[in-house]
Amino acid sequence: MKNLLFALLIFITTNTFSQNKSTTEKPFIEVSGQADTLVLPNKIWINVILMEKDSKGKKSVEELEKDMIQKLQSIGINTEKDLSLNYMSSNFRNYLLKQTDIFKSKSYSILVSDANTTAKVFIRLEEIGISNVQISKLENTEEKKIKLLINAKAILNAKQIAESFAKPLNQKIGNAIQISNFEIMSNQLAGMVSGIAIRGISSKESVAENYEPTMEFEKIKISSSVQSKFLLE
After folding, report:
1. Comparison of pLDDT for 212 and 3, the residue scoring more
2. Domain end: 102, 120, 139, which one?
């Protein structure tokens, strides 16, 4: 019985080794493939900081906050849903130590979905003396779905390249035996914004309430790169 089990174990080990060896000894071709696309951001986070010292004490943070909310609502922003408080602070400690004036500050995040609304936020807040405004982050809500489509295009690109090498040799491309995917950093880094322009107005010009500004974002590049091995037949 022991001899039978030992012989069976040798047979299984030898058979597995021969299968692995036959697979690795088959001719293959290794190629890389790429694909990419450009998409516009549809989630834009705008950071706003309200500081009493910016108004030289003429307006409190609460008054600035009220004015800001009114302006945002006037351009169609749902302040209950898309306006959030990041933090609030004061220099009360410095007042106790140095007897300086007490100034409070608050930081808010505004979420909008397009470039023109972003431009309106900048312009309308500037009208009421709020200028500490910047875009903190851009995203596209469909980025994950688009990434899957781009991955598929990248592997098809790799297969087409492999076929272009095999065809002149009267050979065909078989199954893929290995696929590696490499992440490519897009030209839109998280938390950083590039390629933004507001056109048709200068910061010193007065703006009519119904003025429609033009703002453009640089598109976000979504890329995929794959390395693949295909059997040659």
Report:
1. 212
2. 139
Are 70 and 102 members of one domain?
yes
Q: Which of 38, 28, 26 is nearest to 158 (CA)?
A: 28
Q: Does some domain include residue 2?
A: no
How far the first Cα of the chain sits from its last, in Å, is: 44
| Mean pLDDT score, 208-223 | 72
Domain assignment of residue 127, given as a range? 43-139
Residue type, 91: N
> How many structural domains comprise the chain?
2
The burial of 46, by beta-carbon neighbours within 10 Å (0-12 exposed, 13-18 middle, 19 or more buried), is given as: buried
What is the dihedral sign for C-alpha 190, 78, 217, 204? negative
Tell me: do 110 and 150 sit in the same domain: no
Measured distance CA(220)–CA(115) in Å, rounded:
13
Q: Does 150 share its domain with 80?
A: no
At 55-109, the pLDDT tens digits run 666 788 889 999 999 999 999 999 999 999 987 775 444 444 444 455 688 899 9
**Is the residue at 153 inside a domain?**
yes
Question: How many Å apart are CA 42 and CA 136, to the nearest integer?
Answer: 14
